[in-house]
Structures are given as C-alpha cells and as structure tokens.
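Milestone 3.1: sequence recovery, worked example.
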C-alpha cells in the first residue's frame, strides 16, 4: 500500500461513514484531534463519529510521505481543505438535508493531518498515530 492509496481510502471512508474507519486502528493507536488525545479503536471511532457535522468532504492539497522506522512504518503528512455541513439542530432540518452533497455555501477550513502507519504483520498497515489540526487564519 502506498501513502497515496492509504490517503484516498482514509478520506473517502471518512467522508462516507466515519464508523467504518475502525478497521484502520488498533488498541494501541492514538488520535490527537485539535489537541484532544484519545486512544484505542473504540475511543478514536467515538471521537470521530461525534464530530459536529453531518456531511464532510476532504480536498487533499498536498501529501508527503517518508519511511518512519526500520520495521517498515510510513509517516504521512496531508494538508487540504474541509467542506462541512453542521449537524442539524432538529429532526425537520435533518429530514430536509441531502446526504449526498456538502452545502456549497459552507466555507472551506484548511487542515493538516499526520499519520504514522505501521505494518500489521498480515501484509497491510494500521494507523498507530493520527494527529489532526485545523489551520486558522
């Protein structure tokens, strides 16, 4: 798996259904999202699925990767923009929202995200470290 393949899979899965990202994490994995750290698969998925938006689209601008250790790890740094729709405040708004698109009127938010991928011993990789930060200004 290349860094590009991982990044495409991660963000397409995140944008479609964040709960499906569980397979990419392990109990020893850690996520730092906007300075809040959580660990383990369940904690990470709980954090990601509780984010305050219903629809999201990641637009990757840059992707850089390097080997991260002698065991075959890969460190991946991504920058880009997020297009999000806030979570509706009522069931009426929810019924009226179109889950297939992100509102065109939402302003994109720039972000950076770093992943450390480690081999899982079965020919694939898992996310050992995941750090996400919005870029303001």
């Amino acid at each position: 798996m290349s860094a590009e393949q991982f990044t495409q899979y991660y963000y397409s899965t995140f944008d479609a259904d964040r709960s499906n990202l569980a397979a990419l994490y392990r109990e020893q994995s850690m996520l730092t999202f906007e300075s809040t750290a959580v660990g383990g698969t369940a904690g990470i998925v709980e954090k990601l699925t509780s984010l305050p938006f219903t629809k999201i689209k990641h637009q990757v601008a840059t992707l850089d990767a390097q080997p991260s250790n002698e065991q075959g790890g890969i460190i991946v740094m991504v920058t880009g923009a997020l297009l999000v729709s806030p979570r509706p405040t009522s069931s009426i708004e929810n019924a009226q929202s179109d889950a297939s698109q992100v509102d065109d009127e939402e302003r994109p938010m720039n972000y950076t995200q770093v992943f450390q991928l480690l081999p899982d011993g079965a020919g694939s990789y898992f996310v050992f470290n995941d750090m996400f930060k919005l870029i303001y200004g």
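DSSP finds three helices and six strands in the chain. Residues 90-105 have pLDDT under 50 and may be disordered.
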